[in-house]
Design brief:
It is built from seven helices and eight strands. By secondary structure, it is an alpha+beta fold. The radius of gyration is 61 Å and the shape is rod-shaped.
Length: 278
Amino acid sequence: MTFRITPARMTMAASSLIAVSALAACGTSGSDSAANLQLKPSTSTTSSSSAAAPTSSAAPSSATPSTTTSSKPAAKPTTKATKPASRGEARPATTTRTVTDTKTLYFSTVKEYDSTLAKGTSKVTTAGQSGSAKLTIKQTLVGGKVVKSVTVDRDVIKAPVNKVITIGTKKAVAAPAPATTGSTSGGSSSGAGLNLARAAMWDRIAWCESGQRWGLVASNSTGTYYGGLMMTRDAWRIGGGLKFASVASGASRAEQITVANNLYAQLGLKPWSCRGAA
């Protein structure tokens, strides 16, 4: 059976296609209406197939504009932009500054011992004085409050002077009894356990050895010497001086002369380099 497409049918199909396109452009969902318009003009197979092709192509074109015109994505940037702003306002500002300050430098107390000063006595030989220093300080502030301070420079304006206290270690010595006359070879005793024979000779040797400084302690390349007669530890021990003090500088003049007489009885003047002053 042969179908013939007449001009009238073509005109009706074109009109239906124009009507469907008009409905899609206006944003109306008219798929069913477009189908109705296509079915009304003709019941032929040729008309239906020609009308169906525009319908399927028109459906995607109507869906695409509705997707691009959505307003939901535009609301998200507004929410994200407001949160960082609120956090930034809550944080206090952090700043730094440099300040100067003057600090007092306190003196220390130093003790010194003197064998020529009587034991149990003391005196201030140097008065203590405080000093001062200029400090340069770097401060870190958060919200106007100091949270950290670091000293970056210290300039001493006046150095402190330590207080010096001298403490005596010399034992109290009783007034020596008058020396009795004796021979140069013998020893006369005076006082309890003391022998002051040849006292004048020992004074002359002491003057040569130490300037008669009976509490002196001196050292050189040959050793350390103690007392007015500059006796070593061994000489003091051999002469029996340990019953008076550990070294000669800790004993009195009379005790040192007593030990010197004991050494003289054993060795003569050999232990003394100033024996020529005798």
